[in-house]
């Protein structure tokens, strides 16, 4: 069983930065000529899930990969990783 971490877009993030984060995490569609091409988002690539707009669940072992990608685009300062208990005891 894998442990998961919840990430969220920080409150007060400017709209243009939020849009860049959403495109990176959720993917985007590009139209070239009459054909549409869908780029898979980072959340899908790491087998994460979208809880709601701006709130994501990522496997703990893939968190470093996600943060590195965000750092490449200089978006890591706008993401908060919520603290979670990694043990199986059920306490937080």
Which characteristics define this entry?
92 residues, alpha+beta, four-stranded antiparallel sheet, globular
Describe this structure in words.
The model has no long low-confidence stretch (mean pLDDT 87). Helix content is 28%, strand content 34%. The protein contains 3 helices and 6 strands, in the order E-H-E-E-H-E-E-H-E. The protein is of the alpha+beta class and 92 residues long. The protein has one domain. The strands form 2 sheets. Strands 4-5-1-6 form a 4-stranded antiparallel sheet, with no helix packed on it. It has helices at 15-26, 42-45, 63-72; strands at residues 4-9, 27-32, 35-40, 49-52, 55-59, 79-82.
| Element string (H = helix, E = strand) | EHEEHEEHE
* Residues in helices, as a percent range: 25-40%
Which band does the percent of strand residues land in?
25-35%
Count of DSSP helices?
A: 3
| Domain count | 1
C-alpha Rg (nearest Å): 15 Å
Oligomer: single chain
Instruction: Report low-confidence residues grouped into runs of 5 or more.
Output: none
Report the count of strand segments: 6
- Calculate the mean pLDDT score and round it: 87
Overall 3D form: globular
- Report the major sheet: 4 strands, antiparallel
Query: How does the helix and strand content classify structurally?
Result: alpha+beta
